[in-house]
């Protein structure tokens, strides 16, 4: 079968006509048409190869043959719902449990990260009998109504946004840009105290806390690594208020952080969430996801009297694929690779920080790394336009990277776990070159970085994927969109 059914121009026309305009596309000025992928590489309709630094869904590598085979073989045999007994379902639940703390052993299988988080909220509310949810600033937990309500990343984009009365937003535990920074003697306690205050204020208004929900490492929120001990203290405050702790591992689970299989484990052995949600990498691109919880929470959910049924969740094909993903992680030591290559890449990026004034911070664990660009290392002025410039220039070099965070100035590395040190060398070499050009155009040197934001030589850049225009020191060669207003503060963005 030909990989292309239409030429690229026709695909764009049809997409514009038939696909909802709020479904955004990468590099909207010159989108990429990908027709094939393997490992950490993607290929366009002309057979050109792109190095994929962003697709954490293709966790064990795009189209991994073991995963494809497991899905195809099971599809030939049977696919049906979980109302019939099937060994794949129980075997997968057992294998997943073996990666988790003992008390987390009851699974609900669903089909997307959003479904998993929506169900987690239902479990929490049923178990506690409470309604209020505490979420983090800049968090994203999914696209369904219940989750838009707890996703400031999304609801802040609405000009007429009204915060749901049951939702409370806590500070993001960001020690680089947040309220309490690395120079604070105990940022974990300080951020946890903020949650305690929120609980108290909610109680004063008659609210009752059902759950605190957070990604174990904030992803869309700007690759934020919470200080160690923060989750333990938050869990203590929340449980004292009768609530539960939900860890969203949709982006960061399944060995990505290298030292541990789950990112919440970075906080220490003494921290165990009450509910864990999983998605994206779990099926390497096949739509499946899962909620794992304790016996107590699951029993309380059952006592509501309502059956939980999910047509596709936990079907034999999904579970066969999930099992193959777990097998490949072990067989190819991908968690170990995430640790080794992640350290290698982090070291390379640290050297970029020594060299380039635009690099404000490097942070990450394993193959989940953020590079925050700033125009001023003291004021932390976000280098939003420059981040856009870097990702567009990298795309011209056939390297796919994205920028995120509240200011869209954090370059996010979250590649398939088969990423190699050679891939890291290539990506950093190109970033080095692009940053050098940018800094030359801006007249920016390490010692005068502080003044860079006042530089008058700024030239116009095209608008980004969402139509926002930025300024940096370089002219971009993929066309421009005159007349689009400048935007440097909170901006809409596409997520991957
Ligand atoms: C942290 C997090 N949770 C939940 C979701 C929702 O997952 P899905 O898009 O599969 O519904 C996402 C999606 O990006 C996510 O990043």
Low-pLDDT segments: 448-471, 473-496
- So what's the CATH class of the largest domain? Alpha Beta
CATH architecture of the largest domain: 3-Layer(aba) Sandwich
* CATH T-level fold name of the largest domain: Aspartate Aminotransferase, domain 2
Shape: globular
Bound molecules: pyridoxal-5'-phosphate
Spatial separation of the terminal alpha carbons: 28 Å
- What topology, given as strand order, has the largest sheet? 4-10-9-8-7-5-6
Task: Give the radius of gyration.
Answer: 23 Å
List the quaternary state of the chains. single chain
Secondary structure category: alpha/beta
The CATH homologous superfamily of the largest domain is named Type I PLP-dependent aspartate aminotransferase-like (Major domain)
Largest sheet, in brief, is: 7 strands, mixed
Into how many domains do the coordinates divide? 2
Helix content: 25-40%
Whole-number mean pLDDT: 91
Based on DSSP secondary structure assignment, what is the total number of beta strands? 18
The number of helical elements comes to 13
Describe the structure.
This protein is an alpha/beta fold and 496 residues long. The protein has two domains: 192 residues, Alpha-Beta Complex (Aspartate Aminotransferase, domain 1), CATH 3.90.1150.10; 267 residues, 3-Layer(aba) Sandwich (Aspartate Aminotransferase, domain 2). The chain has 13 helices and 18 strands. The strands form four sheets. Strands 4-10-9-8-7-5-6 form a seven-stranded mixed β-sheet, with helices on both faces. Helix 8 links the parallel strand 7 and strand 8. Helix 2 packs antiparallel against helix 10, helix 4 packs across helix 9 and helix 7 packs parallel to helix 8. It is globular and about 65 Å long. The structure holds pyridoxal-5'-phosphate. Pyridoxal-5'-phosphate binds next to helix 4. The site of pyridoxal-5'-phosphate has 16 residues, from helix 4.
